[in-house]
Structure formats: C-alpha cells, structure tokens
Design brief:
This protein is of the alpha+beta class and 647 residues long. Helices cover 46% and strands 15% of the residues. It contains 24 helices and 15 strands.
C-alpha cells in the first residue's frame, strides 16, 4: 500500500474517489456490454445497502489531518482545494434521472383509454374522407364527431399533465435541504464559499441556524447541537463534541452530517466526505436507484382499463357485425362501432384519477404565514387573539389564566408542553420573495394569533393498541421498525399490542427456563426483537426465516439501509408492504414499499361513479339496431354527458 504526497492511502483514495478512468472493458479484459452495465448497477445498489463503513471518527485527529492533507489552523491551500474539487467533483447530490416532459405529456395524451378515443377519431376522419370522395355534398357528422373526440382527448390529457406538473414542482422544493453557503478556512483565511465548492479536508465553521455543508469531524464545539431528525428520526437536538462516544458513526458525537441543521452553539470541523459520498448522499442514491415496481393502485387502474377496453371493443365489434348483417351501410356500422366505444369509455377518468391522487396547496395565494412555537407562557405573551372553531376571537386574561393552569397541570404529569401561534402576513408589506432575517427579526413578534397547546409524552397514544388490533383482525402483520434501544422498543411493542400478552421472545424463554439463549430453538418463540447489529450480520435467507416463522417482530436500532432490506424481505415472501414513516431516513423504505392509503376507497368510488352512465348510453344503440327505435342520443351527446358527469 502506498501513500500520496498528502498522506492518503490507496484504499482511502479508492473509497472516496470511485471515478476511475473507464476503458470500456471489464476487469478480465472483455468489452463491456449491456449485461455488465446492469450487473454493475445492481452491484452499486447492493453496495449502497451496506451499512456506513468509515473510520474517520475513530482514528486520532492528527492521523485524520495527515490523511486529508490539511491543517486545523490554516486549512487547505487553494491549489489543494482545486485539485480535490477536480478529483471529487462538486459537493452536491447527483439528481436522479428524470422522464422528459414531452414523454410525460405523450403518456397523458395517448395512454389508457385515450388510445381508444384516438382510434375512434381516426375512423371518423377516414369515414368522412370516403364520404367526401363518394358524394358531392357529404354529411359533416363524421367530421364533427372526429373533431370532438380529438378535442376531448387533448383537453383531458392536458389537464392531467398540468396536475402532474404541479406535483413535480412541489417535489422540487426539497432542494432547499442543500446548504447554499459555507465558511471555510483556506490559506489561513476565512472564506465565504458556495457549499458546492467545499472539498474533503476543508476546515469548516458552523453556527446556530446554519446547515452543515458536508460530513464533518468535529474538532471544536461550544454548546454545539444539531437537528438530526431528517436523517435519524430523533426529534431532540443532539449534542456534538470532539470526543468519540460510539463506534457507530451515526450515533457518535464527533460527527455532524451533510444537510442537517445546527440549532445551537458554534462548532468547527474538518470535512471528511462531500456530495454523494456523504451519509445523506448514500441514502438519496439508495432511494433514487431502486427499481420501482407497480403499486397496487397502478395495478388496479391498469386492470380496470384492460377490462373496460375489452368490453368496449367486444361490444363495438358485435354491434358492427349485427348492423352489417341487418343491411346497414358499412359506414353506418362504423359509426355504431364508434358510438359503443365512446359510450363505454369514461372520458373523464384520467382527470378524476389525477385530481383524486394529487391534492396540493393553492398556488394563487401568495401570502406568507408566520408560525411560532415555544414555551406556552412566552407564546401567550406574544398573542392578542385566539383561533377557536374556525373563528378568531380576542384573547382575554381569563383565557390566558385557563391556559396557564392547563400548562401547569400537564407539566406536573411530567409531560412537555409547547404553545403554538401564527400570523398571516399582509402581502403589501411582505410580498413574495421578501427577505426574512431571523437575526434582524424583520417580522411581527407581537399581536399574534394563539392556536393552542400541545403536550408530548414518550408512552404511545391510547389509540395505538386499538389500531394494531384492527390491523391484526384484518389479517395484516404489524412489524415495528425503530431506532430506539431494544429494551425500550420491546416495552413499547408490548404496550401497544405488537407483542401480544403471553407471547415470548427467545430471551424470555431462556430466562424462564434458566438456560442460555443459544440453547433455545428460535422457532419456539412467537415474538422476536432483532437488534440492528444482528440484522447486519444475517443473510437474506435468515431474514426470510425470521419474517416467516415469527408472527410478532420488532426491529430496533435500525438504519435506513436496514429498513429497506426489511421491506424487500417482506416482498420476497409475497407480501404487499405498507410503510409509515417520516424523515429522509425512511425514504428508501417508503419508496420501495407498496404504499396504499384510504385514497384507494375514494378512487374506487370515483371510478364506480363514472361507470354508472354506461348502460343507459349503450341501450339506445341496441334498441335502434334491433327494434328500429329512433336514436335519442348521438355520439356527440354521449360525449357531453360523460364529460359533464365525470369531470
């Protein structure tokens, strides 16, 4: 093993710089093909699923300085920083591949039922062309019908694309998680740089209110606390200090992670990882690299489309044949075919599904709302009104006294109480883009509207056991996955009924029989509590056995990668998996899961409603062909009815 001029070992350079030259060949000298690229992608994804392996938090700080070629007083030189930036690339997350907008538009315009209507429009235009070549004054019915069909498909397709685009814009707001600027020391001077230019080895300063610009090893701290909730799910601010407190990099105090927030104090650290090599970058790449299977809602909609398409085509062809046999002109028979297809296809379904699935904020309201939380007595002092039953009322001394008494009573129970208030800022004084400054406090701090108190306690809510019991009665297997300590997780699981009374874990059986845990057959235990460190060392087959043979399972001290592995294990056994969670640490598991909500029921009701008009619309065509009853509904009329009721 060799060292470069900055003291970095070969293994370190390989770990942090995977961008090696690509000669287009595999390691054994063969040209790369599609299979090798697919295998490489799978291997990369498997690598991302591995636990975070790093030693930068454990080695002596002087050794880390030597490895990174930096100095805690003067930082990197400008030349070093340029070389490292060229080698590692910018300190930013690689955006996932996006579907081109024109592809999305075409899918909305030609997907599903729209294709049937396009075929109907083309048939109408063909029929009109034949009539125009046959008669001197051809009827315009087919031309009008084809134009109406085309307009209907274009309008519904554009509406669906617009709804999808609005959702995409909201997802773009997550880019704000990336810090914009950072203070680093280079050539002995403090520089204010764009966060993308921060490199491994930079000495970085952070203070309360800043986002951490990269993964850093803390070398100085004064009351330094960070909010890791987006990464680990821990709601309380976590203290950071130069001391190593845990072998696990996610739990030690001497590391602060990219895109988390500094909420208190000041700190200084040396950058150890940037961009995609950060812990946040690994999680983002893990989520974006997953192959997304069809969700249950997508499968049901696709099945519905295939079913209705089959029925529409079958009835249309049947009517065409019957009309032709009964002596109708073949062009009239084609019109019957188109009429049946139009009557069966719910033209407004695409818009119905889109509006049901996408519920977004109102973009027409540009005003800001100031929100504040804190100690109840301080929040109450800043408020002059209160929001009750949808109305704003004056907050008098009697109400303040009642809230203070409630606050003291809840505090006496050992609960933490937080007060909340808000204030709708007038758009004339605070227009869109107004530069709010928390230090200058250029916004109102008095005359606010009190919203209420929130009391928090660690024990689970009273409704949770009932929810777990209902899931069990519905045949749902409830698995608890948490970052808590196994003892805490087990106690909570027993309290809410995830581990039923009388069901024992391997440890419980060993304690009851007074034998070592190793002598107990795991299959004798109905319940299991699995530590994240155990999960790290077991094979997929062993995980499948745990999921298969234990009816009640708790996974404790789990990482984002392990949550994803658990979801994949359940899916290997043929289960449909729903995951609930918040924070970046849950995103890989949330994305991989078969996510379903009560929106399913509403969507099914909407689809069922769109089908209620099909039979009344088909019946006139049937009576017209079989009994010569005059046709009360034309194809254009049916279109108007469908669009009016469906949308």
């Amino acid at each position: 093993m060799t060292d470069d001029k900055y003291g970095r070992s070969d293994s370190y350079r390989v770990a942090v710089n995977p961008r090696v030259p690509d000669d287009g060949r595999t390691p054994d000298g063969r040209p790369k093909g599609r299979r090798s690229k697919a295998a490489k992608k799978a291997a990369d994804l498997d690598d991302l699923k591995q636990e975070v392996q790093m030693d930068e938090h454990k080695i002596p700080i002087e050794e880390l300085y030597a490895r990174l070629g930096t100095n805690p007083s003067t930082g990197l030189t400008s030349q070093q920083a340029r070389e490292i930036l060229e080698r590692d690339g910018p300190n930013s997350l690689t955006p996932p591949k996006k579907t081109p907008e024109w592809v999305k538009f075409c899918k909305n315009l030609f997907g599903g039922f729209s294709l049937l209507l396009w075929i109907g429009a083309v048939l109408c235009f063909i029929a009109y062309s034949i009539q125009a070549g046959t008669f001197e004054e051809p009827p315009d019915d087919n031309l009008y019908l084809g134009a109406v069909l085309a307009i209907v498909v274009i309008v519904t397709g554009c509406f669906s694309y617009y709804q999808e685009a609005r959702s995409s814009k909201i997802m773009e707001s997550f880019k704000n998680m990336v810090p914009q600027y950072a203070i680093v020391i280079r050539d002995g001077q403090k520089l204010h740089l764009p966060a993308e230019e921060v490199v491994a080895g930079d000495v970085c300063e952070v203070k309360g209110g800043d986002r951490i610009p990269a993964d850093i090893r803390v070398i100085q701290a004064q009351g330094f606390k960070v909010d890791n909730s987006s990464l680990t799910g821990e709601s309380e601010p976590q203290t950071r200090s130069p001391e190593l407190t845990n072998e696990n990099p996610l739990e030690t105090r001497n590391l602060a992670f990219f895109s988390t927030n500094c909420v208190e104090g000041t700190g200084m650290g040396v950058v150890i990882n940037t961009g995609d090599r950060t812990v946040m970058g690994r999680i983002a790449n893990l989520a974006s690299g997953l192959e997304m299977g069809e969700t249950p809602i997508a499968r049901e909609i696709a099945h519905f489309i295939h079913l209705i398409t089959g029925v529409a085509v079958f009835l249309g062809v049947t009517f065409f044949v019957i009309a032709f046999i009964l002596g109708y002109h073949w062009l009239d028979a084609v019109i019957f075919l188109i009429g049946i297809i139009v009557a069966n296809v719910p033209e407004g379904l695409l818009a119905t599904v889109t509006v049901t699935v996408h519920e977004t904020e109102d973009p027409d309201d540009p005003s800001y709302i100031l929100c504040m939380k804190g100690a109840p007595e301080r929040i109450l002092d800043r408020c002059s009104t209160i929001f009750i039953n949808g109305k704003e009322k004056v907050l008098d001394d009697e109400m303040k006294e009642a809230f203070n008494n409630a606050y003291l009573e809840l505090g006496g129970l050992g609960e933490r109480v937080i007060g909340f208030c808000d204030y709708k800022l007038p758009t004339d004084k605070y227009p869109p883009g107004y530069p709010f400054d928390a230090d200058e406090q250029n916004f109102p701090l008095t005359g606010l509207r009190f919203l209420g108190l929130v009391s928090m306690i660690d024990p689970p809510r009273a409704a949770v056991p009932d929810a777990v019991a209902k899931c069990r009665s519905a045949g749902i297997k409830v698995i608890m996955v948490t970052g808590d300590h196994p003892i805490t997780a087990k106690a909570i699981a027993k309290a809410v009924g995830i581990i039923s009374e009388g069901n024992e874990t391997v440890e419980d059986i060993a304690q009851r029989l007074n034998v070592p845990v190793e002598e107990v057959n795991p299959r004798d235990a109905k319940a299991a509590v699995i530590h994240g460190s155990e999960l790290r060392d077991i094979s997929p087959d062993q995980l499948d056995d745990i999921l298969r043979y234990h009816t009640e399972i708790v996974f404790a001290r789990t990482s984002p990668q392990q949550k994803l592995i658990i979801v994949e294990g359940c899916q290997r056994l043929g289960a449909i998996v729903a995951v609930t969670g918040d924070g970046v640490n849950d995103s890989p598991a949330l994305k991989k899961a078969d996510i379903g909500r009560l929106i399913f029921d509403n969507l099914k009701k909407s689809i069922a409603y769109t089908l209620t008009s099909n039979i009344p619309e088909i019946s006139p065509f049937l009576l017209f062909i079989l009994a010569d009853v005059p046709l009360p509904l034309g194809t254009v009329t049916i279109l108007c009815i469908d669009l009016g009721t469906d949308m």
